[in-house]
Known about the structure:
This protein is α/β, with parallel strands linked by helices. It is 47% helix and 19% strand. Helix 3 links the parallel strand 3 and strand 4.
Amino acid sequence: MKKRRISLFSAPPVEDAFLVAVRTPGQSDQSVSDCLGELWRLVETAGGRVVGREVYRLDRPDPAFFITRGKGQDLARKVEACRARTVIFDDDLSPAQARNLERLTGVRVIDRTQVILDIFAIHAHTKAGRLQIGLARLEYLLPRLRRMWTHLERQRGGIGVRGGPGEQQIEVDRRRIKVRISQLKKELRQVERHRDQLRRNRRRHGWTLVCLVGYTNAGKSTLLNTLTGSAVIVNDKLFATLDPVTRRLKLPVNQQVLITDTVGFIRKLPHQLVEAFHATLEEVLEADMLLLVVDASHHEAEAQVEAVNEVLHELGAGAHPVIGVLNKVDREGARQRARRLSKLFERAVPVSALTGEGVNNLVVEISDELRYQQVRVSVRIPTHRGDLIMLARSSGRVLAEDYDDGYVTLTANVPADVAGRLRKAEAHGGGGR
Length: 433
Ligand SMILES: Nc1nc2c(ncn2[C@@H]2O[C@H](COP(=O)(O)OP(=O)(O)OP(=O)(O)O)[C@@H](O)[C@H]2O)c(=O)[nH]1
Ligand SMILES: [Mg+2]
């Protein structure tokens, strides 16, 4: 028997696309059209071209066709009229809905999640990034295997799908995918262990960790560059950054701070991605403080903040201290919107990461917030523990040093973990490190 193979790691490119959104009773025209606009950008970022779009009014999704059979037939006519080759839904489709819609329209039917997965795959350059996106894609593919096969049948035969491939072959593929998924998970655990070790080392050396979070394209990488003088890739496209980058941030009072730029968030972020990008998103969870970067020039900025907060909650980072960074105030109308947005945060600073305006104020806020998080210690340790004295000086602020008979009494504001080490040294008479 001739072996039939499916490529498990690459989806066909998004081709001439017809976009579909639905409007349910509670939704405004504006919010639906914003979602469609965002889907449009996603499709273009994935290398596709949009040839048409439609919004269908719907009370509730139809289990078989999502938009009901009647509307599906209407969609089929529109798709044919503009010669679209792919239909893309803004909402998640079940495998059965997608299959039924494909039969009706005669073209490939995918959803927003698939497009986001494609973009991640294009932008994943490091080993960890590729492992993570590989895992997310396979998790997405597993329940949709039957559809993959109907595509192949159609490509091969050129006429509608009848019968389809044998269950046996699908079963074989399913097993192959499951094996690969567990391999990927194993490799990812190694990546996680390595990153964990790095973080532990940083903590041991008294570094405070700050993480940039925000909607994709908000300007996180630009801000990292401006704050630290580095040259992380900045791009006017969605999900330009996938892998975390960490740089040193210099603060006025000599605190040791590391700042990490990481993957951006988006509305309806596929849960497969959140799960698979655990190793990356762990950086957010471990941070002492978050800088939530907002594109204040975007008319949907409020909704974007909400979407970011939702993902933060999902990750378990909902209670982290946050400074709102209201970015792009150099753009028209942004300053006014920034004033409104500032009400969403306890602390917020308007900035332009591009021109550098307000960035000094932000540094002062970061420094303040960190100082606020620091704890006051007063310990008596032997003077030969110069390493701890240096640590107290570099990670916080030493308020008094009194030397007396081979001991120093140190009063300082330091991060909680450094305070812990100082107290431990005192209890052990300065012996153990
Ligand atoms: N006018 C203006 N443009 C900005 C500012 N900050 C960033 N940009 C632009 O916004 C776009 C996105 O910037 P990035 O820094 O790549 O955004 P990001 O949040 O890292 O995006 P992802 O990594 O894709 O999630 C780029 O074209 C930047 O030049 C700003 O303060 N003002
Ligand atoms: Mg970026």
